[in-house]
Write the structure tokens for this entry.
Amino acid sequence: MRPDVEAMKADIEQSVALLRRRLDWDVALRKLDELNARVEDPTLWDKPDEAQAVSRDRSQLEAKINTVKAMEQDLEDGVMLAEMADEEGDEAALEDARASLRGIKERAARAELEALLSGEADGNDAYLEVNSGAGGTESNDWAGMLLRMYSRWAKAHGYEVEIEAYEEGEQAGVKSATILVSGPNAYGWLKSESGVHRLVRISPYDAAAKRHTSFASIGVSPVVDDTIEIDINPADVRTDTYRASGAGGQHINKTDSAVRLTHTPTNTVVACQAGRSQHQNREMAWKMLRARLYELELQRREAAAQALADAKTDIGWGHQIRSYVLQPYQMVKDLRTEVETSDTAGVLDGDLDQFMGAALAARVGETRGSVTD
């Protein structure tokens, strides 16, 4: 076997072994059998909420197990193809085998990171909120660029994206917006993106073509299902209604259908205008408020997590987690993990996996070498 093929084979085998250990393979298989038996029990469906939770747990565990099995089978097939091509001196087939193994290696690397998503709400959908900082049009435009960047990342990974709230900037971009990102591990992947993001560029709005620095903040909260209890005293919540703005149906700008909720004890504010009626927006706003308060609780449990108030009260110098420099050079650098790239266009088009992966690994304090047999 060619040395490069042998090296890829060994690397993939190491990843698979690591995934098996993190899953606690034998325990995971027994757990899946138990969940399958529960789902097949017709009496379970007498309790819809419990049935949905069990079905979701089964689907997530089954997906993890199938991922490992598929990589093992694909690795066996790829190595066999490489050996046959090597024996026959077929360089084209050998290159195909190499490409297949490189693809498996990439899948294994992502699966390793996904195995770290073991937090209480990591598997949930997520609300992502973007707010522009001081700076008017410049910051609003930057907030709009971030909204596009995360939307493109989400769609590239098969997630569904829905706009829940949107306040346009006066000339460009957005002042604030909230999107719902739906799909497996959405919150787990996005949670490390909370914080202030800094942009340095030649302003397209400056006739003198001077360099400008803009700031915008990102906040991420998990969608809270009915199995998680969040106790909110209605007396602590102020409700405001107003006319929705931006794209929408006939109700836009004609009725006070948009809803804003303010949780006074924590000064947490959420708003929703995506629904066609005030009733729909009120219901969604309460879900968003529960998610935000739950995120606050999660952050209190994680001493290393950034306080949400920091990102809300001072969107500027000294609080940023990542810098995006377009002038005088091209560089995106994460200030927490030191990961950087000169492919600024790719990042702004949603290529964020290297930053998310490094932040996730650093947050849980795990590396491949730290997992023992």
About this structure: Residues 48-88 form the longest helix (41 residues). Confidence is low (pLDDT under 50) at residues 247-252, 303-313, 366-373. DSSP finds ten helices and eleven strands in the chain. The first strand starts at residue 126 and ends at 132.
